[in-house]
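Anyone opening a protein record will find just a pair of labelled lines. With that in mind, the following record should read easily:
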Amino acid sequence: MSFPPGIRRRFVVSFPLLLLVTLSFAVVATADGASQDDGPELPACNNPFKLVKVKIWVDGVEGEDLSGITASFGASLPEEANKSSKLPAVFSNPLNGCSNSSSKLTGYVALSIRGDCDFVTKAKVAQSGGASALLVINDNEELYKMVCSENDTSLNISIPVVMIPKSADANELFSRLLETRISCSENGMMMLDRMHLSL
């Protein structure tokens, strides 16, 4: 995912500050015949792809919805919105989620961007860091199917994994998170933004 140099620079400068975002997961109904034809059929990699809605709240005020898709691996999400749980979230560092994060992930949803390694690696890194779930921001507008490779025969991913597209809404989410980090650093205070997401 390519962001303008100014945004990347602000992200790196402001990264040490923690931002609290809450995610709650709820699967939106999808077609019964979700296909698995893009990846190998393995026992730990046979989840049907499901469309999800990511709903945003800021200070208790409901915002826009983002569309997402679950991976063919990892934990399933609740079928009903009222059964979803809310979890805090933080950007992984490095942002690509391909190696151990210097951000505290324990109990958080790890946010990362697509690229530089496969989706299973991102999920393994997030899970090993203690993340409760992984939200991947795609580098284009498509909802890409996140599948396993032939080598992932002993896969044990127990957290939900969801992708959202690179869209105006996803970019806005990213920018909003960065703006909050920057405002915290300018004020010299650590403030927790009350932004919530519901998948």
